Amino acid sequence: EDTNASASPFSNPKYVCFLPVPRQHSNMHITDQLACIEDFYFLSGDESRALAMRRSLCVIAALPRRLTRIQDIQSLHNMGQSSRAIVKEILDKGRSTAATCMANDPKYTTMLQFRSIYGCGQRIAQALYERGYRTIAEICADRSWVADFPLSAERLEWGLTLHTELGSQVPRDEVKQLGDCVYKYANTILPGVMMTIGGGYRRGKPASKDCDFIFTHNDSDAIEFLLPQLLLQLQVAGLVVHANTQVGHNTPERIINYHYPIISDFTHRPLLDCTDRSFTIFKSPVSGLHRRIDIICVPRTQYAYTVLAWTGSKQFNRSLRLYAERELGWTLSSHGLLQIYSESGDSEQQQQQHQHHQQKSEQLGRTHNG
Ligand code: DGT
Ligand code: MG
């Protein structure tokens, strides 16, 4: 973050999680181009540049009115020098040269196509490109890539077979109806189960690329066995046609995660994000199309944190976790909120930092209680 924050007509929080970032706003012509540059960097494997663009994009999207003068964002946090130069060019000429070049870059546009295949992330898109593939038709025709990605091959096969269906967005109403459908099965297996629809749906998006359903139950022992049973029933009913499931193992970390999610003065980091989840391909009885549904099951004590994590956006989570860590000394994950300190053997500097975090936490507690 910048430290030279001076007067600006706009609010200037240090962390983007404090910015309201609406989907539609007055500076779409700028954020569309920043999004293109961000994605270009991301697909090139340059995560730090991508992240810098994403943070600047949030700042611009949160501006309450159309930006006309570059001076107005000069001193804002999360607007680095290169982002400012891009925005300045857009204000001056209407277009960023970099964004135009990137949008027309042949490697980028090819990888963009590949990434639209279910199961194909940045790493696989890059590998396919390097193997010489240039179109999805070529990938379908010559399957010699299967040996390169043995763990992802099955998902990619599904992705290729159902490319158009899985690439289409799920309208809000259908997300809700699919949620009701899955909930009925879950509640028959485990009466009293609770479900929240997370993801873009919870953020109000009119359509989503997938559905994120988070389940819990007051009985932590019972919820632990819901996911395999639910998947089996959905498969038998012909609703789930493919599932990529990760169920945690009973390691000590998992047991700690399951039963003691909120622990103060915890001296080691428990495993983060080892939530039971299944990424499924679902034959929608609503539209007749195949849809992606993520089903997540967690104990009641972790539910709020998991719902928060699976609501997103990814950038919001990232920033909120950074804020928790840097300003409060907490570790926020989809399992809970942990305070990680070892009192003994701390250096003086660590103890001062600890005191600073304690004060911040107490202030926050007072604010929230008040
Ligand atoms: P969409 O599907 O177009 O409406 O967009 P989102 O925002 O729903 O994106 P999605 O479905 O990829 O992810 C939803 C949120 O869940 C996102 O903020 C990040 C989180 N999430 C996704 N995958 C994982 C995961 O493996 N672990 C954890 N903890 N969170 C995840
Ligand atoms: Mg989603």
From TrEMBL:
Recorded superkingdom: Eukaryota
Disordered, as annotated region: 344-368
UniProt name for this protein: DNA polymerase lambda
Residues of the full protein shown: 452 to 821 of 852
